Amino acid sequence: MSYPWGAGATGRKSLDPKLDIVFWMLLARESNRALLLLVLNAVLKPATAIEAVTILNPDPERTAIDDKGVVLDLRVQLEGGEQIDIEMQSRSHPALRERILYYWARLYAGQLRRGTDYLALRRCVVSLFADFSLTAEQRFHSIFRIQERHGGPLLTDHLEIHFLELPKLDSAGDQNDEPNLLLWGRFLSATTDAALEELAMEHPVLKQAKDALDELGNDPAARERAEQREMSLIAYHLGIGAARQEGVSAGKAEALRTLLSVKFGKLPDKVVERVEGATEAQLDRWLERVLSATTLDGVLDTRT
Protein backbone atom coordinates (compact mmCIF):
# COMPACT_ATOMS: atom_id res chain seq x y z
CA MET A 1 0.00 0.00 0.00
CA SER A 2 1.16 3.52 -0.72
CA TYR A 3 0.96 6.24 1.88
CA PRO A 4 0.00 9.42 0.01
CA TRP A 5 1.28 11.98 2.48
CA GLY A 6 4.94 10.97 2.14
CA ALA A 7 7.47 9.91 -0.44
CA GLY A 8 6.88 6.21 0.09
CA ALA A 9 8.72 3.41 -1.63
CA THR A 10 8.20 4.85 -5.12
CA GLY A 11 9.61 8.27 -4.35
CA ARG A 12 6.22 9.87 -4.91
CA LYS A 13 5.61 13.11 -3.05
CA SER A 14 2.25 14.08 -4.58
CA LEU A 15 -1.03 13.04 -3.02
CA ASP A 16 -2.59 9.88 -4.42
CA PRO A 17 -5.97 10.56 -6.10
CA LYS A 18 -6.91 6.90 -5.54
CA LEU A 19 -7.31 7.73 -1.85
CA ASP A 20 -10.99 8.56 -1.54
CA ILE A 21 -10.58 11.81 0.40
CA VAL A 22 -8.03 13.10 -2.13
CA PHE A 23 -10.35 12.07 -4.98
CA TRP A 24 -13.17 13.91 -3.20
CA MET A 25 -11.14 17.09 -2.59
CA LEU A 26 -9.79 17.07 -6.14
CA LEU A 27 -13.27 17.09 -7.69
CA ALA A 28 -15.37 18.84 -5.05
CA ARG A 29 -13.38 22.04 -4.61
CA GLU A 30 -15.09 25.02 -6.20
CA SER A 31 -11.84 25.97 -7.91
CA ASN A 32 -11.78 22.55 -9.60
CA ARG A 33 -15.37 22.56 -10.84
CA ALA A 34 -14.17 22.33 -14.45
CA LEU A 35 -12.41 19.06 -13.61
CA LEU A 36 -15.58 17.63 -12.10
CA LEU A 37 -17.53 18.52 -15.24
CA LEU A 38 -14.86 16.92 -17.43
CA VAL A 39 -15.03 13.69 -15.43
CA LEU A 40 -18.84 13.59 -15.50
CA ASN A 41 -18.98 14.17 -19.24
CA ALA A 42 -16.30 11.52 -19.85
CA VAL A 43 -18.14 8.89 -17.79
CA LEU A 44 -21.75 9.63 -18.74
CA LYS A 45 -21.25 10.82 -22.33
CA PRO A 46 -24.54 12.77 -22.32
CA ALA A 47 -26.17 13.90 -25.56
CA THR A 48 -25.80 17.48 -24.31
CA ALA A 49 -22.67 18.33 -22.36
CA ILE A 50 -23.09 18.85 -18.60
CA GLU A 51 -22.21 22.46 -17.88
CA ALA A 52 -23.27 22.94 -14.25
CA VAL A 53 -23.79 20.82 -11.15
CA THR A 54 -24.69 21.26 -7.50
CA ILE A 55 -22.68 19.31 -4.94
CA LEU A 56 -25.10 17.74 -2.45
CA ASN A 57 -22.54 16.79 0.21
CA PRO A 58 -20.20 19.79 0.33
CA ASP A 59 -18.06 18.46 3.17
CA PRO A 60 -17.35 14.77 3.89
CA GLU A 61 -17.71 14.03 7.58
CA ARG A 62 -16.91 10.33 7.83
CA THR A 63 -13.17 10.37 8.38
CA ALA A 64 -13.06 9.09 11.97
CA ILE A 65 -10.88 6.12 12.76
CA ASP A 66 -13.83 4.16 14.17
CA ASP A 67 -16.12 4.81 11.20
CA LYS A 68 -17.53 1.46 10.16
CA GLY A 69 -18.69 2.70 6.75
CA VAL A 70 -15.25 3.83 5.55
CA VAL A 71 -16.85 5.26 2.43
CA LEU A 72 -16.48 8.74 1.00
CA ASP A 73 -18.62 9.50 -2.02
CA LEU A 74 -19.31 12.69 -3.96
CA ARG A 75 -22.98 13.31 -4.70
CA VAL A 76 -23.98 15.89 -7.30
CA GLN A 77 -27.21 17.02 -8.91
CA LEU A 78 -27.50 18.09 -12.54
CA GLU A 79 -29.63 20.97 -13.73
CA GLY A 80 -32.43 18.61 -14.80
CA GLY A 81 -32.64 17.03 -11.33
CA GLU A 82 -30.66 13.85 -12.07
CA GLN A 83 -28.36 12.80 -9.24
CA ILE A 84 -24.92 11.26 -9.66
CA ASP A 85 -22.91 9.48 -6.98
CA ILE A 86 -19.18 9.21 -7.72
CA GLU A 87 -16.68 7.37 -5.57
CA MET A 88 -13.19 5.93 -5.61
CA GLN A 89 -12.40 2.59 -3.97
CA SER A 90 -8.85 1.25 -3.65
CA ARG A 91 -9.87 -2.02 -1.94
CA SER A 92 -12.58 -4.53 -2.64
CA HIS A 93 -14.68 -5.93 0.17
CA PRO A 94 -17.63 -8.29 0.62
CA ALA A 95 -21.04 -7.13 -0.58
CA LEU A 96 -19.57 -4.27 -2.62
CA ARG A 97 -22.10 -4.74 -5.43
CA GLU A 98 -24.96 -4.78 -2.94
CA ARG A 99 -23.65 -1.61 -1.34
CA ILE A 100 -23.45 0.12 -4.71
CA LEU A 101 -27.05 -0.85 -5.42
CA TYR A 102 -28.03 0.44 -1.99
CA TYR A 103 -26.34 3.75 -2.76
CA TRP A 104 -28.42 4.05 -5.91
CA ALA A 105 -31.60 3.19 -3.99
CA ARG A 106 -30.77 5.79 -1.36
CA LEU A 107 -30.36 8.47 -4.01
CA TYR A 108 -33.54 7.46 -5.81
CA ALA A 109 -35.79 7.17 -2.75
CA GLY A 110 -34.31 10.35 -1.28
CA GLN A 111 -36.00 12.41 -3.99
CA LEU A 112 -39.47 11.71 -2.61
CA ARG A 113 -41.06 13.94 -0.03
CA ARG A 114 -44.55 13.75 1.44
CA GLY A 115 -47.01 14.50 -1.34
CA THR A 116 -44.41 14.18 -4.13
CA ASP A 117 -45.68 12.52 -7.30
CA TYR A 118 -43.70 9.52 -8.56
CA LEU A 119 -43.50 11.25 -11.92
CA ALA A 120 -41.17 13.76 -10.27
CA LEU A 121 -38.50 11.07 -9.83
CA ARG A 122 -35.39 11.59 -11.95
CA ARG A 123 -32.60 9.31 -13.10
CA CYS A 124 -29.91 8.42 -10.56
CA VAL A 125 -26.45 7.14 -11.46
CA VAL A 126 -23.67 5.61 -9.38
CA SER A 127 -20.14 5.67 -10.82
CA LEU A 128 -17.43 3.67 -9.08
CA PHE A 129 -13.75 4.01 -9.92
CA ALA A 130 -12.07 0.87 -8.60
CA ASP A 131 -8.38 0.05 -8.25
CA PHE A 132 -9.22 -3.64 -8.58
CA SER A 133 -11.24 -5.89 -10.89
CA LEU A 134 -14.95 -6.12 -10.24
CA THR A 135 -16.28 -8.06 -13.21
CA ALA A 136 -15.18 -10.80 -15.57
CA GLU A 137 -15.47 -8.37 -18.47
CA GLN A 138 -12.33 -7.11 -20.17
CA ARG A 139 -13.77 -3.64 -20.54
CA PHE A 140 -12.41 -0.82 -18.40
CA HIS A 141 -15.86 0.81 -18.34
CA SER A 142 -18.97 -1.32 -17.72
CA ILE A 143 -22.49 0.11 -17.60
CA PHE A 144 -25.40 -1.69 -15.92
CA ARG A 145 -29.10 -0.93 -16.43
CA ILE A 146 -32.48 -2.68 -16.03
CA GLN A 147 -33.35 -4.44 -19.28
CA GLU A 148 -35.71 -7.27 -20.30
CA ARG A 149 -33.55 -10.39 -20.02
CA HIS A 150 -34.17 -11.63 -23.57
CA GLY A 151 -32.70 -8.56 -25.18
CA GLY A 152 -35.85 -6.48 -24.95
CA PRO A 153 -36.15 -2.80 -24.08
CA LEU A 154 -35.05 -1.00 -20.95
CA LEU A 155 -37.58 -1.01 -18.15
CA THR A 156 -36.46 2.52 -17.29
CA ASP A 157 -33.40 4.67 -17.70
CA HIS A 158 -33.63 5.79 -14.08
CA LEU A 159 -31.16 3.16 -12.85
CA GLU A 160 -27.60 3.26 -14.15
CA ILE A 161 -24.43 1.98 -12.51
CA HIS A 162 -20.93 2.46 -13.93
CA PHE A 163 -17.89 0.41 -12.96
CA LEU A 164 -14.53 1.83 -14.01
CA GLU A 165 -11.86 -0.79 -13.29
CA LEU A 166 -8.38 0.74 -13.36
CA PRO A 167 -6.49 -2.58 -13.76
CA LYS A 168 -8.16 -2.96 -17.17
CA LEU A 169 -6.71 0.20 -18.68
CA ASP A 170 -4.57 -1.76 -21.14
CA SER A 171 -7.62 -3.29 -22.78
CA ALA A 172 -9.26 0.14 -22.83
CA GLY A 173 -6.24 1.48 -24.66
CA ASP A 174 -6.56 -1.27 -27.26
CA GLN A 175 -10.24 -0.46 -27.81
CA ASN A 176 -9.69 3.31 -27.65
CA ASP A 177 -13.43 3.94 -27.84
CA GLU A 178 -13.49 6.30 -24.82
CA PRO A 179 -10.36 8.42 -25.18
CA ASN A 180 -11.42 11.11 -22.69
CA LEU A 181 -12.22 8.56 -20.01
CA LEU A 182 -8.97 6.74 -20.74
CA LEU A 183 -7.10 9.96 -19.90
CA TRP A 184 -8.62 10.00 -16.43
CA GLY A 185 -7.85 6.34 -15.93
CA ARG A 186 -4.20 6.96 -16.75
CA PHE A 187 -4.09 9.95 -14.40
CA LEU A 188 -5.58 7.99 -11.51
CA SER A 189 -3.31 5.01 -12.14
CA ALA A 190 -0.03 6.94 -12.24
CA THR A 191 2.25 5.74 -9.43
CA THR A 192 5.13 8.23 -9.61
CA ASP A 193 5.57 11.97 -9.89
CA ALA A 194 7.54 11.43 -13.10
CA ALA A 195 4.60 9.57 -14.64
CA LEU A 196 2.24 12.39 -13.67
CA GLU A 197 4.59 14.96 -15.17
CA GLU A 198 4.78 12.99 -18.41
CA LEU A 199 0.99 12.76 -18.61
CA ALA A 200 0.67 16.49 -17.97
CA MET A 201 2.91 17.17 -20.94
CA GLU A 202 0.79 14.94 -23.20
CA HIS A 203 -2.61 16.56 -22.72
CA PRO A 204 -3.92 19.91 -21.38
CA VAL A 205 -6.69 18.20 -19.38
CA LEU A 206 -4.15 16.11 -17.51
CA LYS A 207 -1.99 19.17 -16.91
CA GLN A 208 -5.01 20.84 -15.37
CA ALA A 209 -5.60 17.78 -13.19
CA LYS A 210 -1.96 17.59 -12.12
CA ASP A 211 -1.88 21.30 -11.28
CA ALA A 212 -4.97 20.83 -9.10
CA LEU A 213 -3.37 17.81 -7.40
CA ASP A 214 -0.18 19.81 -6.77
CA GLU A 215 -2.25 22.60 -5.24
CA LEU A 216 -3.82 20.10 -2.86
CA GLY A 217 -0.40 18.71 -2.02
CA ASN A 218 0.83 22.19 -1.09
CA ASP A 219 -2.10 22.68 1.28
CA PRO A 220 -1.03 21.50 4.78
CA ALA A 221 -4.64 20.97 5.83
CA ALA A 222 -5.33 18.78 2.79
CA ARG A 223 -2.20 16.72 3.38
CA GLU A 224 -3.14 16.21 7.03
CA ARG A 225 -6.64 15.18 6.02
CA ALA A 226 -5.20 12.67 3.55
CA GLU A 227 -2.87 11.25 6.20
CA GLN A 228 -5.63 10.87 8.75
CA ARG A 229 -7.94 9.25 6.23
CA GLU A 230 -5.31 6.77 5.10
CA MET A 231 -4.42 5.90 8.67
CA SER A 232 -8.11 5.41 9.45
CA LEU A 233 -8.51 3.02 6.53
CA ILE A 234 -5.41 1.05 7.50
CA ALA A 235 -6.67 0.76 11.07
CA TYR A 236 -10.11 -0.31 9.95
CA HIS A 237 -8.99 -2.98 7.49
CA LEU A 238 -6.21 -4.34 9.69
CA GLY A 239 -8.42 -4.33 12.75
CA ILE A 240 -11.28 -6.09 11.02
CA GLY A 241 -9.04 -8.71 9.41
CA ALA A 242 -7.05 -9.48 12.53
CA ALA A 243 -10.10 -9.46 14.76
CA ARG A 244 -11.70 -12.16 12.64
CA GLN A 245 -8.67 -14.37 13.10
CA GLU A 246 -7.32 -13.51 16.54
CA GLY A 247 -9.91 -11.57 18.54
CA VAL A 248 -10.80 -7.91 18.91
CA SER A 249 -7.93 -6.83 21.20
CA ALA A 250 -5.30 -8.61 19.12
CA GLY A 251 -6.71 -7.02 16.00
CA LYS A 252 -6.52 -3.54 17.50
CA ALA A 253 -2.97 -4.17 18.71
CA GLU A 254 -1.90 -5.27 15.23
CA ALA A 255 -3.56 -2.21 13.69
CA LEU A 256 -1.83 0.11 16.18
CA ARG A 257 1.61 -1.44 15.60
CA THR A 258 1.19 -1.01 11.85
CA LEU A 259 0.03 2.60 12.14
CA LEU A 260 2.89 3.49 14.49
CA SER A 261 5.41 1.88 12.14
CA VAL A 262 4.00 3.73 9.13
CA LYS A 263 4.14 7.06 10.91
CA PHE A 264 7.29 6.77 13.05
CA GLY A 265 9.37 4.01 11.48
CA LYS A 266 10.74 0.87 13.17
CA LEU A 267 9.36 0.55 16.70
CA PRO A 268 11.57 -0.01 19.77
CA ASP A 269 11.03 -3.38 21.45
CA LYS A 270 9.68 -1.71 24.57
CA VAL A 271 6.97 0.02 22.51
CA VAL A 272 5.95 -3.27 20.87
CA GLU A 273 5.77 -4.92 24.30
CA ARG A 274 3.70 -2.07 25.67
CA VAL A 275 1.22 -2.27 22.80
CA GLU A 276 0.92 -6.06 23.05
CA GLY A 277 0.29 -5.84 26.80
CA ALA A 278 -2.24 -3.01 26.62
CA THR A 279 -5.87 -3.27 27.60
CA GLU A 280 -8.57 -2.80 24.97
CA ALA A 281 -9.42 0.60 26.49
CA GLN A 282 -5.79 1.72 26.15
CA LEU A 283 -5.65 0.49 22.56
CA ASP A 284 -8.79 2.43 21.70
CA ARG A 285 -7.32 5.61 23.23
CA TRP A 286 -3.99 5.18 21.42
CA LEU A 287 -5.67 4.43 18.09
CA GLU A 288 -7.47 7.75 18.37
CA ARG A 289 -4.27 9.61 19.26
CA VAL A 290 -2.17 8.18 16.46
CA LEU A 291 -4.00 10.31 13.90
CA SER A 292 -2.87 13.62 15.35
CA ALA A 293 0.18 12.85 17.48
CA THR A 294 3.59 13.91 16.21
CA THR A 295 5.69 11.62 18.43
CA LEU A 296 5.48 8.12 19.89
CA ASP A 297 5.27 9.59 23.39
CA GLY A 298 2.35 11.69 22.22
CA VAL A 299 0.47 8.51 21.36
CA LEU A 300 1.40 6.34 24.33
CA ASP A 301 1.63 8.91 27.15
CA THR A 302 -0.84 7.60 29.72
CA ARG A 303 -0.84 10.85 31.68
CA THR A 304 -3.13 12.53 29.13
Using only C-alpha atoms, the radius of gyration works out to 21 Å
Q: What number is the mean pLDDT?
A: 83
Unreliably modeled segments: 1-10, 62-66
* Structural class category: alpha/beta
Terminal CA distance reads: 32 Å
Question: What does this protein structure show overall?
Answer:
The chain has helices at 20-28, 33-44, 96-109, 169-175, 179-189, 193-202, 204-217, 220-246, 248-264, 269-276, 280-289, 296-300, and strands at 53-55, 73-78, 83-89, 124-130, 141-147, 154-165. The protein is globular, with a radius of gyration of 21 Å. The chain has two domains: 20-219, no CATH class; 222-300. The protein is α/β, with parallel strands linked by helices and 304 residues long. It has a six-stranded mixed β-sheet, with helices on both faces. The chain contains twelve helices and six strands. The relative contact order is 0.12. The model is unreliable at 1-10 and 62-66 (pLDDT under 50).
Topology:
Blueprint: H1 20-28, H2 33-44, E1 53-55, E2 73-78, E3 83-89, H3 96-109, E4 124-130, E5 141-147, E6 154-165, H4 169-175, H5 179-189, H6 193-202, H7 204-217, H8 220-246, H9 248-264, H10 269-276, H11 280-289, H12 296-300
Parallel strand pairs: 3-4, 4-6
Antiparallel strand pairs: 1-2, 2-3, 5-6
